[in-house]
Amino acid sequence: MVRESMHEFMNDPIDVSVDFTGRRIKPKRVRWGTKVYDIDKVNLVHGAREGQKRIFYFSVSDTANFMKLKLDTETLEWRLVEVYAP
Amino acid sequence: MAIILHLDFNSYFASVEQQANPFLRGLPIAVAGKGRHSIDVAAAHQGSARITIDQLSFQRSVVTTASREAKRRGVKTAMGTWQARKICPEMLVIPGDPQKYGDITKRFMAILRRYADVVQQFSTDEAFADITCACGGDYLGATILAQSIRAEIALECGEYCTVSIGIASNKFLAKLASESKKPNGLTVVPPHEAEDFVLTRPLADFCGIGHRIEKHLERLGATSVATLRQLPLSLLLREFKSYGYFIYNSARGLGSDELEPNEDPKSIGNSYTFPHNLKNEQEIYRNLLALADRVAWRMRKQNFVATHIAGYVRYGDFGGYGFHRRCQDPLIDGLDIANTAWEIMKTRIDAQKGVRLIGVSASGLLPLGGSDSLFDSQRRKTRALKALDQVTDKYGSGVWQRASTLQTNFKERVSGWHYDHES
Predict the structure, then answer these.
(1) What is d(CA B134, CA B116) in angstroms, rounded to the nearest whole number?
(2) Which residues are CB-neighbours of B384 under 8 A, at least 6 positions away?
(3) Fewer CB within 10 A of the terminal residue: chain A, N end or C end?
(4) What is the ipTM of this complex?
(5) Which portions of chain B are predicted below pLDDT 70?
(6) Are B90 and A8 a contacting pair at CB < 8 A?
(7) Considering the domain boundaries, does residue A76 fall inside one?
(8) CATH, range B267-422
(9) Among candidates B44, B56, B99 on the partner chain, residue whose Cβ is nearest the Cβ of A48
């Protein structure tokens, strides 16, 4: 029996409100289309490179969903790239 | 006497995934390797396609790491996912994300370098550290230092990323010690306890004694460390040649305490297992060329030229052959590497058997010289490669591709020593 859960990969533009603490930023709220999600926890932040471009991925969650947010440090554009709901 | 620390992440890729996504914690999960239906996470994050993970689509994939919950149910690394699912039907399969794991590897290596005198990375999730001076030369200091390293890893990598640590007087013992308590263990083996500690461990836990050697030893009557100690060195040398010294010493807890940090590579290679067996010579050459371009790019990035090219072919029936050639001139271009390899391959290849895997590597590496070639065509090629390398540096690998390799598609590996995105 395979678990029924929703796990999707995408590359959707989103709006993100963030807190700045020193040199760190912490996503607080995500607007994806018409939906708004308040982030409870930033579980992991990791960096990657697309050529010389530095990208940061924020693995965040609220009480019901996991989301992976992508920040392009060159364009300062946020994208929602992964969603998981148990 | 040296004090060596060995650090090993527990269920590395799965723990990182469970750290990132708290809804996966406590669940049996497996991180899938590349397979016919697996997805390349980095590519998915850049494309416009929406991909829904269908659990059944991982049927032809393998488990690169199982979470501790899945391991408890009997799931093992390298098992086919269909087989793992038979054992553990509720197991979730997660596509591997090498960029994420690569970043965590860099973080824990940086932490170790802050604490240790010398650090040797042993794999993506394992490292040795010489902490002799850092801990003041005693095992109490070493234990305190290990706890600090563990606390920093929890802080910087996440509390779900746990490590097992072993501390001893040499690399062999330190690794054996860290293997002895998982997950989240700390095992200290001071020199006076080494011989007794080794006696308590199964031979299968010895790094360097694989399944075949274990079976060979069994035939000689050695089924435990105690019985292995009874075998004379002369017998081990006769049976295993010079490797007999290692086996003899390891049974007594003896080993090297010399760490090898940042050695220059002896060879640079790439291999790939195809999702279906290749039965067409053109298709085989195209894939060889794409692989050779990767090798050449990595080589130039590290400022090397190749004087030897080696490779191997494995068929669908797991038969195959290897080859090696010394080059007349040093090579820096993927096309030259591919053509050198193809000259040998084409005489021996039996495409009808279906090629499952191709590997190509460059060795006899020499530093890339600064002087220009006497020949105009060679100078033009060098300039073109330099320009292409600059484009790759700026926009990332995969930004250019030869027209003839457009039909090749290599998914990023989720296991092994190197991460593809870093090469």
Answers:
(1) 6
(2) none
(3) N
(4) 0.95
(5) 34-39, 54-60, 262-263, 370-375, 411-423
(6) no
(7) yes
(8) 3.30.1490.100
(9) B99
